[in-house]
Amino acid sequence: MTEAFLHYVWQHQMLGRGLTTTDGQPVVVLRAGELNHDAGPDFFNARLTIGDVEWVGNIEVHIHTSDWNAHHHQHDAAYNNVVLHVVYEHDADIVLQNGTKPPTLELKPWLHPALVANYEVLMAPSDGAVPCADRVGTVPQFVVSSYFERLTVERIEAKSAHVHRLLEESHGGWEQTCYWLLAHYFGGKVNALPFELLAKATDQRLLARWNDNRQRIEALLMGQAGLLEGYFEDDYPRVLQADYEALRAGASLKPVGSHLWKFYRLRPSSFPTIRISQFADLMTRSKNLFSTLLEMRDVKELQHLLNCQAAPYWNTHYRFDTVAVRPSPKQMGRMQTDMLIINAWVPLLFVYGAVRGQQNYKDQALGLLNQLGAENNAVIRLWCEAGLAPANAADSQALLQLTDHYCNQRRCLECRIGYYLLKHQ
Predict the structure, then answer these.
(1) Which residues contact 404 (CB under 8 A, 6 or more apart)?
(2) Are strands 53-64 and 82-89 parallel, antiparallel or unpaired?
(3) What is the reported pLDDT for 425?
(4) Of 129, 133, 137, 343, which alpha carbon lies 20 to 30 A from 328's?
């Protein structure tokens, strides 16, 4: 038994009728109160009748009555307004700091055994990422669908924190924030930070100046990434190196450290050299990326713009001076472009709508997720095996939010699916 479960039971009033205190007075709960996450009693502003008297005050919840003294509440005046002490098991008499004795409600006789059993099943150790995998398929679709909508917004709002930090750093510059954010996600999970640092070290206005010269933009980005140092045998990196040195002479450029870039255990198509070349391609497509993206309403337009390709040299290479075993064009592909839309553009568009107070942009961001296909990764495949397959990217984002912030943290009592299973299984 845990206090978290007792809080949940009290908050949602999962109790039978005919409640009585330990001294036999009838209890009728008119309002359970507001759960307090800070110091002080567990619930504020509860309203109930005990016997013939109506009370408005605070509720304190414990597993045992004796926990009151163990937690030293008998010496704390903050608990003098407790009108009911709710416990799982009554094992002692207690008094408030002012000397009065609060009525006690023992929950043990009023908790349905099935409710306790369901809670124990939810909290049982699980080897998988989905603790309720064997039961989640029984949850009605209307419960799942409405919960997914909330989880999707939760996930966008969580990602929005990064957008707000970049927006503050850019002093409210939407174009610069967009540039930095796209760079971050071009790097993938492994090279996200180096890519963001690269973008911050390379003025977007300098890239815009050479917007019509793909090779010069790639030279600038590769040089700023610290990847054009030393001697090269191939002509292409030597040309890039010469271009970068010419650009460097005319501007105050400081490269990021080449040691920041990670190649180990990455698929060659995700090597930073390939991604930087693809990013250079994106920089040639528009001088004002944010404004261009903002005009696009259809997801296919976004996919087309973001589907970048590395320079021809990279068809036969993954690193400078190293010939690839299997030559192929290095196109971004649908999965990578969709991930850019999901992780970068959707949160940025959502924040833009929130900052400007224009709900249509927030709705547009959510609409894009509904247009995109569901993601396919290890976590999503586990949910599919459990019988909860996502229909689109909005659903897969909801499942990732559910996994990261509820399942992995065993916050089943705060999950709407967990709530349903607790009451109905």
Answers:
(1) none
(2) parallel
(3) 57
(4) 343
For the segment 73-82, what is each residue's pLDDT rounded down to a tens digit? 999 999 999 9
Contact 234, 227 (CB under 8 A): no
Give the model's confidence band at 299: pLDDT under 50 very low, under 70 low, under 90 confident, else very high: very high
Angle value at C-alpha 359, between 357 and 362, nearest 5 degrees = 110
Model pLDDT for residues 32-45, shown as the tens digit of each residue: 999 988 888 999 99
CA 356 to chain centre: 23
Burial of 274 from C-beta contacts in 10 A (0-12 / 13-18 / 19+): buried
pLDDT in tens, 214-225: 999 999 999 999
Secondary structure in 3-state letters for the chain: CCHHHHHHHHHCCCCCCCCECCCCCEEEEEECCEECCCCCCCEEEEEEEECCEEEEEEEEEEEECCHHHHCCHHHCHHHCCEEEEEEEECCCCCCCCCCCCCCEEECHHHCCHHHHHHHHHHHCCCCCCCCCCCCHHHCCHHHHHHHHHHHHHHHHHHHHHHHHHHHHHCCCCHHHHHHHHHHHHHCHHHHHHHHHHHHHHCCHHHHHHCCCCHHHHHHHHHHHCCCCCCCCCCHHHHHHHHHHHHHHHCCCCCCCCHHHCCCCCCCHHHCHHHHHHHHHHHHCCCCCHHHHHHCCCCHHHHHHHHCCECCHHHHCEEECCEECCCCCCCECCHHHHHHHHHHHHHHHHHHHHHHHCCHHHHHHHHHHHHHCCCCCCHHHHHHHHCCCCCCCHHHHHHHHHHHHHHHCCCCHHHCHHHHHHHHHC
Q: Which structure tokens are listed for 60?
A: 């304190």
Of the pLDDT bands very low, low, confident and very high (cuts 50, 70, 90), residue 359 is very high
Q: Tokens 């990261």, residue?
A: 404
pTM above 0.90, yes or no: no
